[in-house]
Amino acid sequence: MADIPRARPGNEEVILATTTSTQDSGLLDVLVPVFERQTGYRVKPIAVGTGQSLALGARGEADVVLVHAPEAEVAWMAEGNGTSRLLVMHNDYVVVGPAEDPARTKGEHAAPAAFARIAQTGAPFVSRGDNSGTHAAELAIWKAGAVEVKGRPWYQESGQGMGATLNIANEKRAYTLTDRSTYLARRATLQLDVLTEGSKELLNVYHVMPVNPQKFTHVNAQGGQAFAAFMVSREAQETIATFGIDRYGQPLFFADAGKPEPAA
């Protein structure tokens, strides 16, 4: 941690805009206290999904963003909103649904084909519908399967985060797309099974991006850069690599700092 600057008096708060999955999985509860203890910063996390997180950063209302929508991130950087885009980790999305699987998606390794079966049978599907990274990934899968969901009676948008969306799908005995980490963290309270996994469309990659102080002079640039540096540090990466193993028997994320971008 020697290369990560400590907070200066009066400049301790760091506003982190991030996805609901980093919070719902419990990862932030582990990483943030370590960062705060070792640097003197205080992190104020705003877990609202990738779309809203990028919007907060683009308005200078956050100091750093931690998100998972690569195409949107590249566009955000091209607009001059960030100083760097650092690869942190990845996991994957899975299609979950009731064990009876009315659309017969179990074992279908291609996510677009699984989605097409859901549409063909009219089985209920709950979307986050919140412009998050998960929502963007879901819409891309519908598009790949040539399915138009707008106005379909079986398609519902929750407008909420991943944890709440999983609860709604559970109540309605519906399908949904979720990041594996949030699903595993909540699996004990759900009657939803993993039915489709391993498809190339289901890769879920996270990057951290400090907000550009040349565009937003009021942001805590040092704090944002310190948090980004911490997320790719050896200590944070080791924590990410082992997070979840003790409780779920498998890691919830795979540490990627310093590696090539994961390929779908």
TrEMBL record:
Domain PBP stretches: 9-235
Q: Which domain of life is it from?
A: Bacteria
Q: Which SUPFAM superfamilies match?
A: Periplasmic binding protein-like II (SSF53850)
Q: Please name the Pfam families in this protein's record.
A: PBP_like_2
Task: List each coiled-coil range.
Answer: none
Its protein name is: Tungstate ABC transporter, substrate-binding protein
- Source organism of the structure: uncultured Chloroflexota bacterium
